[in-house]
Amino acid sequence: MRKMVFLCRRRPDITHDEYARRVLEGHVPLAIRHHPTMRHYVVNIVERVAVPGSADLDSVAELSFETLEDYRERLYDSPEGEKIIGRDVVGFMGGAHSYDCTEHVHRRPERRFGERTPGVKLVEGLKRKPELAHDEFVAQWLERHVPLVLEHLPGVTHCVTNVVDQRVSPAGEDFDLFFEIGFAGEQQLRGAFASPKSGGRLSIESDSARLVGAVEAWRVAEFPQK
């Protein structure tokens, strides 16, 4: 299974709220109708930047396909369907960067299609320290860092690593992975990161400092669609 992650920005002549409405109410039904090879579809509407200096995004889209060729060569049901999607997208999309990823699900809450997932979710784009190779960074993240998070960070309900195998768009930051982490609510989120920096919490921060060279992050509202 291939997972495509899109970092999306609205047209400058529409508001963020208008963009979100057009995506959820207009684009989603068209995408489900005209993308026959799409297996899973999640729209994350950005609520705010979670780390200063992060790109000013409006949504993060997650689309999954059996193969990359299903996305590149068999995305549309027909030439007419491609035209319909194209006309719709130009009405709200200002630009997007896309990444071909391998998904590793560590923990995920129950979802209902078409409804917002309860709780609070963060999406983080991570770059490795320059002295680390991509494969080394990924291996240490999956084998050491994620278990530390799940063991020592209280209240985690959503934990997914999307390893970037290649950037598909001609431009965009060269992230090594996208990390999704979520909590049941605002209180749980604050409690997790307000815990004393000792023991397990200190281990998480020390490990992150050893691995991560740069991070961008966004707080999002998750809307599973398929």
Question: How would the blueprint of this fold be written?
Answer:
Elements: E1 2-10, H1 16-34, E2 38-49, E3 59-65, H2 68-72, H3 79-89, E4 93-107, E5 120-128, H4 134-152, E6 156-167, E7 177-183, H5 186-194, H6 199-211, E8 212-224
Antiparallel strand pairs: 1-3, 1-4, 2-3, 2-8, 4-6, 5-7, 5-8, 6-7
Structure, described:
This protein is of the alpha+beta class and 226 residues long. It has one domain: Alpha-Beta Plaits, CATH 3.30.70.100. 34% of the residues lie in helices and 37% in strands. It has helices at residues 16-34, 68-72, 79-89, 134-152, 186-194, 199-211; strands at 2-10, 38-49, 59-65, 93-107, 120-128, 156-167, 177-183, 212-224. An eight-stranded antiparallel barrel has the order 1-3-2-8-5-7-6-4, surrounded by four helices. The longest helix has 19 residues, at 16-34. The model has no long low-confidence stretch (mean pLDDT 95).
Unreliable runs:
none
Tell me the total number of β-strands: 8
Strand content: 35-45%
**CATH architecture label name:** 2-Layer Sandwich
Q: Give the distance, in angstroms, between the N- and C-terminal Cα atoms.
A: 15 Å
Element order: H for helix, E for strand:
EHEEHHEEHEEHHE
- What structural class results from the helix and strand content? alpha+beta
Any idea of the CATH topology? Alpha-Beta Plaits
- The backbone outline, from C-alpha atoms, is globular
Number of domains: 1
Cα-atom Rg, whole angstroms? 18 Å
Largest sheet: 8 strands, antiparallel, barrel
CATH class equals Alpha Beta
- What percentage of residues falls in helices of 4 or more residues? 25-40%
Mean pLDDT equals 95
Number of helices: 6
Strand order of the largest sheet: 1-3-2-8-5-7-6-4
